[in-house]
Automatic annotation (TrEMBL):
Organism: Pseudomonas alloputida
SUPFAM superfamilies (alphabetical): Xylose isomerase-like
Protein name: Sugar phosphate isomerase/epimerase
Molecular function terms from GO: isomerase activity
Gene3D superfamilies, per the entry: Divalent-metal-dependent TIM barrel enzymes
Xylose isomerase-like TIM barrel domain ranges (all copies): 22-255
InterPro entries, per database record: IolE/XylAMocC-like, Xyl_isomerase-like_sf, Xyl_isomerase-like_TIM-brl
Domain of life assignment: Bacteria
């Protein structure tokens, strides 16, 4: 367990600037962080690493001083009007910061076009040593694990991967049997959290929970032990656990990061 890579995801401490996030990760006991280069929504607070050279310099300095490394970069969306070449500046910054994994969302209902764009993104990312991971989310056009596996398989690029997030795995109704069919080489990291209660009937409520109200590992109802058994035994784990209620109660980013890591380590010890 001590050799397992744990990465602090941006969404867990979204109020922190990248340099502060690196510092918190180091103090809390992580070895890696995930950096959000592109905001997931227009409403969220964003720190423009791609556009702000000084912010990049500060982040690089904090990475160097703490020894923390960057695991993944987020979030690129493949949409009907996407021009993959437009992502190159983002990939270049990500590579400069040391990131090797890339979170990709599928927001195009034309699966053939989505697959073609994912393949093109893989080719562009390969030039930077980056592995795009298609993340299935039930409110996107890549709704579950089976569909993500199909797109990545049909794109057929060596660096193309699938991102398994415990929240989306649960809420999309994906199965451990399906996960058993995913080749280990297609999983270079996974996202861990817990999920409370049954799947809501309302997709807006699922989305709200995903962005605001996840649970620390072991504090919910997901079969995390089963999920971890099904993942490659050494796959890095990104702890993506937004807990707005704790944030609003004044629990600091560092406290939440520590809680997430301690809970994740306890669940992993049971595997």
């Amino acid at each position: 367990m001590t050799d397992r890579i744990f990465s602090l995801a941006a969404l867990t401490v979204l109020e922190l600037s990248p340099p502060d996030m690196v510092e918190v990760a180091a103090r809390a006991g992580y070895s890696h962080v995930g950096l959000r280069l592109v905001p997931a929504t227009e409403q969220e607070r964003h720190f423009p690493l791609v556009a702000d050279a000084e912010l990049r310099r500060q982040t690089q300095a904090r990475l160097r001083d703490t020894g923390i490394k960057v695991l993944d970069l987020e979030i690129l969306r493949l949409e009907p009007a996407t021009c993959v070449a437009d992502f190159e500046a983002i990939l270049a910054v990500g590579a400069e910061l040391g990131g090797t994994e890339l979170l990709v969302a599928g927001n195009d209902p034309d699966e053939a076009r989505l697959t073609e764009r994912f393949a093109a993104l893989c080719e562009l990312a390969a030039q930077y040593g980056i592995h795009p991971h298609l993340e299935f989310m039930p409110w996107t056009d890549v709704r579950d694990l089976r569909q993500a596996m199909r797109v990545v398989a049909n794109a057929d690029r060596a660096n193309g991967c699938v991102l398994v997030d415990a929240f989306h795995f649960n809420r999309s109704g994906s199965s451990l049997d399906d996960l058993a069919q995913l080749k280990p080489k297609r999983m270079r990291y996974a996202q861990l959290c817990d999920v409370a209660g049954p799947v809501p009937a309302d997709m807006d409520e699922i989305l709200r929970q995903a962005r605001n109200e996840r649970r620390f590992p072991g504090d919910g109802d997901a079969d995390l032990v089963g999920l971890l058994h099904a993942l490659p035994p050494s796959v890095p784990l990104s702890l993506e656990i937004p807990t707005r209620q704790l944030l609003e109660q004044g629990v600091s980013g560092e406290q939440r990061a520590r809680m997430a890591l301690e809970k994740a380590q306890a669940v992993l010890a049971a595997v």
